[in-house]
Specification:
Helices cover 37% and strands 13% of the residues. The chain has helices spanning 30-39, 51-59, 71-74, 86-99, 118-130, 146-154, 170-173, 185-197, 210-219, 240-243, 261-278, and strands at 43-47, 64-67, 104-108, 136-140, 159-164, 202-206, 224-227, 235-238. It comes from Arthrobacter subterraneus.
Length: 290
């Protein structure tokens, strides 16, 4: 591999300033993630839904950005991920791809965009790449969707598989529940193996026991990503609003808040409102003179 095309090794540090420009290294590709798995390194993934989040996370050295269908309940105010449309996912994808210069950008295939047939999955994936400018798509579902993965990969589109708890199936799964406990763990492993064999470049596992996730990581040669799946996976992902403490209320067990952005924004908004009401903003420094 040409050294000019090789990003800085993962885990070797990030820009010194939180708002530093994205690294000058070339775009991270799927084979870089595979190299991380092969060499025992790890990478980080965060959701992003807009230009500024993408720019900040990219500059901070996050290797993979996910335009998740979680935009439905983290941006659009829905109770679940189910209502978001393919057109809305394309809109969010355009914003993120404009802001990310180095990270691999992956977009979710939303509910209703691939379940009818492999051909529907290919068509939806093409739109996400052609109109949203993403580099790969993520698709929920087990081994029953292996043919869809094959069809999308055959069309030249990288696919990230998503097994375990799949939010688009929450009604059939009985709500937000850990998947793969006890004998059901075998199904998670079988799903992951079948999808990797179908051509998925990576397998994401959500809300599965750590020992099952570790078994999956050993069973597949491709990288694995966990969210509520323990520490044995190659990568980890969180919804950025959870990671940064923007969302209020009860947090899932697997969430760790690395900041309290909600408090910072609340304080800023209060200070702004106070200064507007008492007349101190705008002052001379923020006013034009004739």
């Amino acid at each position: 591999m040409n050294s000019a095309e090789t990003p800085a090794p993962y885990g070797t540090g990030s820009p010194t300033a939180a708002n530093a420009s994205p690294p000058s290294a070339a775009r991270i590709r799927t084979h870089h993630l595979q190299a991380a798995k092969d060499e025992g390194r790890r990478f980080a993934m965060l959701t992003a839904y807009d230009q500024y989040a993408a720019e900040i996370f990219d500059g901070a050295g996050i290797e993979v950005l996910l335009i998740g269908d979680s935009a439905a309940n983290n941006v659009l105010g829905h109770a679940t991920t189910l209502p978001i449309t393919l057109d809305e996912m394309i809109l969010f994808s355009r914003a993120v791809t404009r802001g990310a210069r180095r990270a691999l950008v992956v977009a979710d295939l939303p509910f209703g965009s691939y379940e009818v047939s492999p051909a529907q999955g290919v068509e939806s994936s093409i739109r996400l790449m052609k109109e949203g400018l993403v580099h790969a798509v993520k698709m929920e579902g087990g081994k029953d969707y292996a043919d869809t993965v094959r069809a999308i990969v055959r069309a030249g589109i990288p696919v990230m598989a998503h097994v375990g708890f799949t939010p688009q199936s929450e009604h059939s799964l009985g709500g937000y529940r850990v998947q793969g406990r006890g004998d059901a763990g075998r199904r998670v492993v079988e799903d992951a193996v079948a999808l990797a064999e179908a051509g998925a470049f990576c397998v994401l596992m959500e809300m599965v026991p750590a020992d099952v996730a570790a078994e999956v990581d050993k069973a597949v040669s491709v990288p694995t990503i966990g969210i509520g799946a323990g520490s044995a996976t190659t990568g980890q992902v969180l919804v950025w609003q959870d990671m940064a403490g923007l969302r209020a209320g009860r947090q899932a067990k697997f969430v760790k808040q690395f900041a309290d952005v909600r408090s910072v924004l609340t304080q800023a908004a209060r200070a702004y409102g106070d200064e507007v009401r008492d007349g101190s903003f705008p002052g001379p420094d923020h006013s034009f003179q004739g």
